[in-house]
Amino acid sequence: MHAFVGYLVSGLANGSVYGLLAMAAILVFKASRTANFAIGETGTFSAFALYGAVALTRLPYWVGLLVALVAGAVVALATEAIITRNVRSALLVLIGTLGISDVITGINTVLWSKGEPYQEPSFPQLPDVTLGGVGISGQYLSIFAAVVVICLLLYFLLEHTGFGLNVRAAAEDRDLAALAGVNVRRCVMVMWAAGGALAAVAAVLVAPLSALNVSLMTPLLFNGYAAGILGGLDRLPGGLVGGLGLGVAASLIGGYLSSTAEDAILFAVLIVLLSVRPNGLLGRRVVQKV
Amino acid sequence: MAVARRRLFIAALAAVCLGATACTTTSGAGGSGDDTVGITQNSIKIGTSMGLTGPTAAEATAALHGAQAYFDYVNDHGGVNGRKIDLTALDDGFTAAQTVTNVRRLVQQDNVFSLFYLWGLNNTVAVLPFVKQSGVPLIGPQSPTSAVTDPVIPNVFLMEPTFNDEAAVCAKQLADSSSVHKLGILYENDPIGQDALKGAQDAEGHLSKPMAAKVAFTSGTPSFTGQIVSLRQQGVDGLIIFGTNPDIVNIAKGISLEGWHPALCGSSNVFDPTFLSISGKDLNGLNGSLGQYLPESTEPGIVTYRNRLKQYFPNEKATVFGVQAYGEAQILVHALQSLGKNPTRAGLLTALNSLTNYSSDTLFPVSFTKTNHDGVSQYRLVKVVNGQPQFTSGFLSNDSLFGNG
Amino acid sequence: MTDSTRGPRRLPPASLWPVALSAVAIVVALTGGSFWEYLVGLVLIYSIAAIGLTVITGLGGQISLAHAAVFALGAYVAGILGTRGLLPFPLTIVAGALVGVVAAAVIGLVVGRMTDLAFAIASFGVTIIVQRIATTFTGLTGGFEGLNVPPPTWGGLRLTQASLFGFVLVVFLLSCVVGRRLATGTFGRTLRALSSSKVAAASVGMSGQRLRTTSFMIGGSYAALAGGCYGSWAGYLSPDQFGVSLAITFLSAVVLGGMRSVLGTVLATAVLLGVPQSFQGAGQWTLIGNGLLLVVVTLAIGSKLLPQPVREKLRGRFIPRRAPRPADPADVATAAFRPPASLAVTRQPVLSVRDLSISFGGVAALQSMSLEARGGEVLGVIGPNGAGKSTLLNCVTGVYRPDSGSVTLSDVDITGMPAHRVARAGIARTFQVPQVFSELSVADQLVVSHPTTQGTSLTARVLGTPGARRRAKAVADETRQILDGLGLAAWANEAVTNVPHGSRQLVQLARALVRRPQVLLLDEITAGLPGDEANRLADLFGYLAQDLGIAVLLISHDVPLLMRACDRVVVMDAGTKIADGPPHAIRGDQRVLAAYLGTRQATHG
Predict the structure, then answer these.
(1) Confidence at B11, pLDDT banded by 50, 70, 90
(2) Is the distance from CB of C258 to CB of C316 less than 8 angstroms?
(3) Spatial CA neighbour of C583 closest among C565, C599, C600, C558
(4) Residue A188: its pLDDT value, please?
């Protein structure tokens, strides 16, 4: 029981991080029907921006956080402007963003690799708590809170505001929305920027747990995408459900089945699930319009 | 038109097949075999391949600078019997496939006399078949795995404690502690972790306490609470941790969060000053073992190392990797010097095979024999105290630790 | 001139470049010393795998990160068999290839069920799974420590590195030749058709599932063959060599090579392996350089930054050397549309729809809809927007699966059949918003849709057997006749994306006709065409029905056209039939007027 709670805590903490990345993936997918494989490295870039702002230039944490969010948004916008805006094939966009990912890694390395690793300033901590005999770090609570709050916030923004209506219209049918007077270009940019900022949030929350280094987000990118696809890329709550589901499943598999084959078993399960539900757990069946 | 083209195609195809046959009958001339390859009037050419870009860029560069600082110093002081050491360092981005290509290039194209200090465990293991077959000396790979020295490869010499050995020493050290009743190992699911696991398992027979749990983890995971709680529940109170440095901090923090105080022991990489400067406070009490002096200590040899590093690479910090590579460079130069005016590969191997308790500036004494190419015979136990590494024992050998067990 | 009369190209002409490349490889290997021999061998091996991925990703449009996994399978199977001396060297490679093909088939079967993006991630999972298998079964694979593969033996002889090079070279040469045949031949064009419109592909009888699986098996066999060679060439296998970075290397080679060009892929592989050797001093900048290269090439082939001919050339697309683009066929053609009489059906078909119902999210789109269309007759279907006309068509053609009711074609029950099987049963259609294969020329739309092309075995097509050539010629002839008959001859070799929007309806019609349909379903075919064109079409429909015996079902808003062209008109409203009869009778029907004037309430209650 004790261990089970431990696995659950790990699973939810990891899953929250996957969830943040998954929501970033979902925003991009809703905006452009494609993927941005550079979000992982975008996050790392932002975490370094926060470090630079707070640890080097001694700005207050909140200002540093803002710098990180802006950095994430700007990098994502640049990715959109360079690749997605010019390239129509979704396949080529994926590959183009892989290229951008390499470029960002290269820039991170040139700027920061000397003197690695760094101590990332920590998000103002929630207190540590104990549940069922298991100590839970306030940092995990922050991450968990962030994913829930952001999910609710985005849900509210998208479902209950005029701007959200425009964004949803643009996501549903670009041409029709444009005809109806929606500024589609702006909607798309806002979604991409929000995706970049979300990746930044994920990175600045993860970095203080260990040590900030150039490969911080590399191992998390594909899990984030897997979470998004598991939940369903066309539904925002899919990110939350997919992220937490994937995190908890991985943790339980590692704990009770095999710690060495955890990732392999996890992906095998994922593949089976996706063959049964191609649009993810929450995804709606898309009716083809011809 | 189309027919003519088809005929041309078939003719050309036949020509290529002939060429291919020609290829198969000419045997490729390798750079191997020649005993004095890479030796010129005034230089000795050696080569290495390292992950100078990619995830280990900082550490690998620090190591390269350590070695280069020593070679520069030697070159500025008359070289090795009048010849300068000319080190070619190729970048492999830490991918093993690229290391294989680089090493082939160094040996077959650049015609180096010897390979020196390859970076990375996978990377070194991947080139062993070629190194074995080509006969090029490989001196001091930064590849602390038993696969390099067991069985002995005549032209490969290791000067660093293996992860295997380090884990075994950890297991023994923890088992000998009166506060420990059950051992556990938490290792990264990669070659280094696997090597450590093997070392700990091999040591099991010599231990007075049982090894209760062996758990793997994936690098970069945000939370390790599950593994930690599970290890604790299984009654583990002496824990061996092997993995990438950032993960080790995360695990150490997780352990203290649970209010759990097992005796901890980890790999020597943890004792790097850069890493401890940011994470030392979280790693207090962590044990380990080292085969070198501490980079920031006041040992005379280490002070010399730091001075030379400052002279040739003013921006480089003292690191465990630099200390290791510097010492290995010194050992290589020592062996080359003993060969006199006409160094040969065979001579180098002979010289190294008879090296006994050689003390470089920065490493503990190193010895080789024809049947033992694991040069580290001595190490000291070390512990993080107040965020700083401290030796907790004098010189030990495997015999003195395991000899009676 | 010759291009347009020759119609679609037959077998691609034998190309000299694979031979030339091999010659270069031999010269470099012989003169450059052992290292260059090794590097060139490595380039050849990686190229073989990358050519395989060109089939899957470049032609088939599926991003697969599982290619590294299949490569690893081939390498490990061949390596393990070789290490244990169980089989002579060439057979170990064949065994590896077989295992790879089986694995690829499984991957292909699973993909069909996923979206493209989901598959990209799932295929990443496949690579992880294979890596873990390699690390777990240490007894076979050596685990993390790896497997030393001894120099290969064949008939008791140890092969030298040089003879192994010769072997690799021969495999490479074959791979190039076959790869080029696949890429430029009808199979490649079929895959490109599938990746540009799945719906249209199914409507001309292509089974997406089967084609994708085939493409994965072909690509997989390349990867596994290459893997088998790799083990012996490198002499050492370990799981970390076969990770995502290898998968991305293959993917990069395909993209940098221009997605569809075998030659491009090979050259790109050489660049990718050669660059780290050439720019050793660049340090951290190499990664940025690599990334920028990917970005630039993606932009070059995917964006409008470069002039179109350059882009198309880069993408390996065939461009005829002909200066001016022909005028819009809808503007120039004046003669009557007359497709060849050889399309006549042998037995007059009967399509009957009974009590068809379907609803989406609780909204009934069709309610007990019934109608019957016969050979020799032009049947019009009319109704206000949202009446369910297109839904009816989609239910009949298998795009949607009806909730209840039945569809039979000459007494064969085709209810709920997948679209490609409906198409094969003899029903052809066009789409309201034209669905063309945007990657192909106008003539190729027809070539890949032709039952004879689809019925010719892939092996025969790749080998270019006399039978396959004869059939290809027959297809080309018929394609030309049909295009001629619809006034599209001048456009035969033009990219379909250059065809004006309205005239794409004619292209769709030509493509439907090449299927030799018994029933032809046309959805708003006059949309976007000038009015006088509608007259010629009306005449064409009469010809198709009366002279050729085809059952023509015409959905349209265009009342004058329906009045002219149709023998009978069915009126739909709110998902059901409200009237059925000759045009003149329908014209005066009160219910029809009511439906059109929006006074439904008044009539119904």
Answers:
(1) low
(2) yes
(3) C565
(4) 92
Q: Which of C284, C430, C433 to mutate to test the interface with A (most CBs of A within 10 A)?
A: C284
For residue B6, pLDDT beyond 70: no
Q: What is the per-residue pLDDT across B60-78, written as a single tens digit (0 to 9) for each?
A: 999 999 999 999 999 999 9
Structure confidence by residue, pLDDT tens digits, A119-146? 999 888 788 888 888 889 999 999 999 9
The helix/strand/coil state of C415 is coil
Give the DSSP H or E segment for B43. Answer: strand B43-50
pLDDT at B16 over 70: no
Tokens of B55: 């995830």
The residue of chain A with its CA nearest to that of C118 is A229
Whether A143 has its CB under 8 Å from any CB of chain B: the answer is yes
Q: What is the pLDDT of residues B243-258, one digit of tens each?
A: 988 999 999 999 998 9
Burial readout B257-278 (b: 16 or more C-beta within 10 A, e: otherwise) = bbebebbbbbbbbbbbbbbbeb
User: B83 and B71 in contact (C-beta within 8 Å)?
Assistant: no
E strand or H helix that includes residue B389: strand B388-391
Q: Which residues of C touch B57 (CB under 8 A)?
A: 284
Closest by CA to A118, choosing from A190, A235, A211, is A211
Does B216 contact C at CB distance below 8 Å?
no
Check residue A78 and give its pLDDT.
Answer: 97
Q: What angle do CA B363, B367, B369 make, to 5 degrees?
A: 155
Q: How open is the CA angle A164-A166-A169, to the nearest 5 degrees?
A: 110
- pLDDT of res. C12: 47
DSSP letters of C381-393?
Answer: EE--TTSSHHHHH
**Nearest by CB to B108, which of C34, C276, C287?**
C34
Q: Which residues 249-278 on chain A approach chain C with CB closer than 8 angstroms?
A: 260-261, 263-264, 266-268, 270-271, 274-276, 278
The tokens describing A176, both together, are 């029709």
pLDDT, position B30: 42
- Residues forming a β-bridge with B289: B381
Residue among B293, B289, B274, B333 nearest B62 (CA): B274
Identify the pLDDT of residue B3.
55
- State the pLDDT at residue A110: 87
Is 90 exceeded by the pLDDT of residue B106? yes
User: Among B58, B247, B257, whose Cβ lies nearest the Cβ of A116?
Assistant: B58
For the CA atoms of A248, A251, A257, A259, what is the dihedral angle to 10 degrees?
Answer: 160
Q: Distance (Å, rounded) from C-alpha C480 to C-alpha A223? A: 52
Q: Which helix (H) or strand (E) covers residue B263, if one does? A: strand B263-266
Residues of A within 8 A of B53 (CB-CB) are 109
% of chain B with per-residue pLDDT over 70 = 91
Q: Rounded to the nearest 5°, which phi and psi values hold at B90?
A: -100, 150
Q: Determine contact, residues C439/C192, Cβ cutoff 8 Å.
A: yes
CA distance A290 to C419: 13
pLDDT of residue C321: 46
Residue A174 confidence (pLDDT): 80
List, in sequence order, every beta strand (DSSP E) within C311-450. Answer: 350-360, 363-374, 378-382, 404-409, 412-413, 427-429
Q: What is the dihedral of CA A123, A127, A132, A133, to 10 degrees?
A: 100
Is-contact C475 C453, C-beta < 8 A? yes
User: Which residues does chain C have with pLDDT short of 50?
Assistant: 1-12, 318-323, 599-605
Cα–Cα distance for residue pair B51/B311, rounded to 1 Å: 24
| Percent of chain A residues past pLDDT 70, beyond the cut | 98
What three-state secondary structure class fits B13? Answer: helix
Cα C180 versus chain centre, distance: 16
